[in-house]
Write a structure and sequence with these properties.
It is built from 1 helix and 2 strands. It has 53 residues and is α+β, with helices and mostly antiparallel strands.
């Protein structure tokens, strides 16, 4: 058995930034800045679901 091996407890993906991608009426979008008023209204009217922990 080797005692010189150092084991680090690192989570996969830790420290990696990401951008939220949503599917809205067939489009994959990260931001809504290119949506017209009708599409923005549609997004605001959607039912928001929350994750229970």
């Amino acid at each position: 058995m080797r005692n010189d091996i150092k084991v680090e407890n690192v989570k996969v993906g830790e420290g990696v930034g990401f951008q939220r991608i949503r599917r809205i009426t067939g489009y994959l979008v990260g931001t809504l800045d290119r949506f017209n008023d009708a599409k923005r209204s549609e997004v605001e009217d959607r039912v928001k679901h929350s994750l229970k922990k």
